Each structure stands twice: as structure tokens, then as C-alpha cells.
Amino acid sequence: MKQITTILCSLLPALSILAAPAAPAPAKPNIVIILADDLGFGDTGCYGATKIPTPNIDRLGRQGLRFTDAHATSATCTPSRYALLTGQYPWRKAGTGVLPGNAALVIDPQHATLPSVLRGAGYRTGLVGKWHLGLGGPGGPDWNGDIKPGPLEIGFDYCFMQPATGDRVPCVYVENHRVVGLDPKDPIHVSYGQPIGDEPTGKAHPELLKMGLSEGHAGTIIDGISRIGFMTGGQAARWKDEDKADVLTGKAVDFIAQNAGRPFFLEFATHDPHVPRVPNARFVGKSGCGVRGDVIVEFDWSVGQILAALDQFNLSSNTLVILSSDNGPVIDDGYDDRAVADLNGHTPAGPLRGGKYTIWEGGTRVPFLVRWNGRITPGVSDALVSLVDFTASFAALTGQAIPAGDAPDSVNVLPALLGDSKSGRDQLVEHDGSRLLAYRDGLWKYIEPALRARSTNVSAGALYDLGHDLGETTNLKAVKPDTAKKLSGELDTVTHAGGRADGRR
After folding, report:
1. Amino acid 22: pLDDT
2. What are the DSSP calls for 324-390, one per residue?
3. Residues 468, 413 share a domain
4. Sorting pLDDT into bands at 50, 70 and 90, what band is 459?
5. Do 132 and 30 fall into the same domain?
């Protein structure tokens, strides 16, 4: 495909661009967020993994602060990413659950967001990678015309993205407002209801698949892989899964190269290690833990490319780099890729219980590394922080005011992020991504009662002392009824009375 070849070729020229004379450092620190997709607390070397080599991530950990109690707000992607950009808990707004690939934009452009706050501070703002927050108005996106509103309407100056997850149609890239490489004679049509067109599906033609199914993913076959949903058209624009890390990383490096002489904010949201796990051939077999380990090695390579770009432009001493994940790990997530069979003793959540989709710590507690060479003293921090805190914290860093009512759940934890304080926020609401909530008050964790909870058995509620029971093995609700009642009341105040989970900003 011509446009994919062009994009791939941009990666190598980017390396030659890096050899150019470095531009003067911006007066304000650049901010780069590297957001993995489904990377677990125990998936990297600096968090204790021994089976999967992650030298670039480990380097970032050695040079910066490694947080042990950092959280995504939710144990699934759409709500987690919504919170990161808006500073609002996603369960406060209807329609922020995991979205189909043709959903309308769920972020209100009328409210302040992380990129709009930084753009107001004079930053050039860019998004490269996964979006999955909807596109277009109430009717959803027009894939064959201008695709808006979207990232540009909520504060980004530039975007190059995959619209949803890699296992959902449409399997195309969008740059700013248009599908990349779309032939107008071959328009795209997408359905998440009835099948459309005559392209084969994984359900009807499993013999055409290069990766089998374990559940779901029975829709249109794209690049030999069956997806969620149905798609016709856009043949020239469809991505090749093995090249996705190269394409997205190349675009992220290009953004750094093009903005090296001014303050910039980059959210680099990778596809790895989300399903379908299809590493480039040069990473196959490199982990010793099967295909899931291989795409983590691929993610580590992407991190290395970003760090190399910053080094080559002499920007590392003036760039705040944060690496984290949108939620905890998942092993079998709908494809028969031997991820479970090939774990080889690797524990993706480390010492934590649960993972993606669950209310346990493994669902929302994520790797979280912060580096700013010359400003942040390397070490380990136990401060409680969340991705929802970026808006308030970076507003404080850049001297911006957040309009009243916007980013209501974002807390200024900048002193903790910079290593100037050992304390972050005091309380936090955790969310399984669907309907179940938990409340953190210090090291106490209370899980609200629920009639149904995916992958959990907490219908009567639960209380854990994480200071002595990080793996959430002993429910203390019956032993500490007063503590459970206190935390239940605090959670009720936050959720039903509209209060904040922390009184500070």
C-alpha cells in the first residue's frame, strides 16, 4: 500500500533528521506521555519482570522516579483515556464505557482538557496512536469526508491515530480530519450491527485466518485477522498489523523532530501489547514468553526510539517524560495466540490480584515512570497518583488556570510527580470500567457491594488493608465494620453527592 510504504519510509529519514543540529531548548519543559495499552504492573524489568527484556523502559526507570501506587482510573481503555484527557472520573458521564469503532466523540469540546490547557500555555500539542474516544457528532464519523469533531476539537494541534482498538474496525489510520490514503472510489462503510458487504468474516471463514479466535472477534477479516464489527471498502487505506509499531513510532518521532524548537506536548499512545498481538518479524521470539512478551519487547523498542529522539535533539534535560498504561494486563482477550500457554512463569500483574476488567489492584494499578533529567532525582515513590491528575498537575506546572467546573476530579500532585513530596492524593476512586467502584483512603481499600461484578466475587463488598495485604487475599469487612462503614460513606459522598475524592487541586 502506497501510503503505508510512505509512512514506513518516514521512520528511517527521521533518524537522519535527528543528526541535524539541535534546536535551542524551549523555555518551558516539553511533556511526553507514553501510554501503553494493557501493560501490567509486573510486565517490565524495573517492576520485577525477569522473563521479558525491557532495557529502554528500565533505563527510564533508573533515570527517573518509579511509582509503586499509580493508577489508571478504570480497568478498561475508553473510560481510562477519557479521565486522562478530561480530569473527570468516567463513571460520572454516561456513554464512557468501551466504545465501538463508529461511536461519536464522548469528550465535550466546550470543556477544558489536558491538551487545551497546555495549548493555552503555548505548547504545540500532538496525539499519535490509539484514540478510542469516539469521532464525529451524534451520528458518528463520516469515514469518507472530514472526520470531526475529534482530537483537534478538544485541544490537539495534530493527530495521527487509529480510531479505536486494533481489534475493531475500521482498520485505518486517521491524520487530523481524514483517513490516510483513502481512495474515494472505494468508500468505507462500517457497521456494529448487522453484517455489511460480502467480505469474509472470521465466524464464517475461519480457514482464512492467520490467528484463531478464542471468543468474540467474529466480524470482518482484515489482514488475515477477524475483528469486532463489519467493514467494507478502504482497501488501500487498511493498515498492516506487523507494521503498526513502526508507523506510529515514526510519526511520534517526526512530531518531536518538527517541534524541537518550541514547547510541545505529545501523547504517544501505543497499540502494544493489546490484541491482536502481531509483532514485526524482527521482534518475533525475542521475549521467551510468546507473542504477548514479544509485543512488549516491541513496545520497549518504541520507547527507546522516543528517548533517542529526545537525546539527539538535546531535549532530555528539558522534557518531562511519563510512561504508564491505560489499565492492567489481560492474557487471553479473544484470540487464540497462546498467550496463556507461553507465559513461561511471567506474572503480568506482579504481586497484584486481577487485571484488566477487574476491580482488584491489578486492574488499575499500573507502571508509572517519570523522568526529567536534571530536575527529578531518581528513586522510588509510594505516593498515590492517578492519570486523572494530569490536567491539574500540568496546569500548575505551566501556570494555567482551569475554568470552574472543568477537570473536577483532577488533583494537583505535581510535587509528587517531581519528587518534591512523598505524598500524592489522599483518596482515589477505582473503577472496573463497567459498573463496580472501589475507594482508596490511604492504604485502605473498600469495594462497594454489587450484584454482579466481572471476574470478581465481591457481591457483599470487601475491605482490604493494602499495607499488609497487597494481593487482596483477606477481606476485613466483617473484622473492621467501622472502617468499612466510614469508607462506604466517603465513597457515597463522592459518587452520589457529587463531591470530590480529594479537596485539593
Report:
1. 38
2. EESS---S-SSEES-TTTT-TT--TTTT-S--TTSSSHHHHB---EEE-TTTSPPEEEEEEEEGGGH
3. no
4. low
5. yes
Mean pLDDT, residues 479-497: 92
Distance CA 54, CA 297 (A): 6
User: In the block, which residue shows the cell 499500573?
Assistant: 366
Contact between residue 375 and residue 418 where contact means Cβ atoms under 8 Å apart: yes
Task: Kindly state whether residues 15 and 134 are assigned to the same domain.
Answer: yes
- State the average pLDDT over residues 354-383: 97
Q: Which domain holds residue 466?
A: 427-496
How much is the pLDDT for 215? Answer: 80
Assigned domain for 318 exists: yes
| Residue recorded with cell 513496545 | 299
The set of cell numbers assigned to 94 is 454516561
CATH of the domain at 443: 3.30.1120.10
d(CA 449, CA 436): 8
**The pLDDT of residue 498:** 54
What is the pLDDT at residue 235?
98
Tens of pLDDT, residue by residue over 125-168, are 999 999 999 999 999 999 999 999 999 999 999 999 999 999 99
Q: What is the pLDDT of residues 312-324, one digit of tens each?
A: 999 999 999 999 9
- pLDDT band for position 24 (cuts 50, 70, 90): very low
Cα 36 to Cα 51: distance, rounded to the nearest angstrom = 19
Domain count, the chain: 2
- Hey, is 429 helix, strand or coil? strand
Long-range contacts of 7-11 (CB under 8 A, 24+ apart): 7/173, 7/180, 7/247, 7/250, 7/251, 8/243, 8/246, 8/247, 8/250, 10/250, 10/251, 10/254, 11/246, 11/247, 11/249, 11/250, 11/253
221: closest CA among 234, 206, 236? 206
Any idea what DSSP says for residue 54? -
Q: Report the SS3 class of residue 32.
A: strand
By three-state DSSP, how is residue 287 classified? coil
Residue with cell string 482464512: 208
In a domain, 122, yes or no: yes
Q: Are residues 333 and 450 in the same domain?
A: no
In angstroms, rounded to a whole number, what is the distance separating the alpha carbons of residues 251 and 266?
Answer: 11
Using alpha carbons, select from 401, 381, 382 the residue that is nearest to residue 391. Answer: 401
Q: Pick the last residue of a domain from 365, 383, 417.
A: 417
Q: Which cell is 132 given?
A: 478510542
pLDDT at 460: 77
Sign of the four-CA dihedral 447, 450, 454, 457: positive
Q: What is the pLDDT of residue 324?
A: 99
Is residue 295 located within the same domain as residue 315?
yes
- Whether residue 353 is found in the same domain as residue 491: no
Give the residue from 318, 304, 321, 274 showing the smallest Cα distance to 40.
274
Domain final position from 417, 437, 462? 417
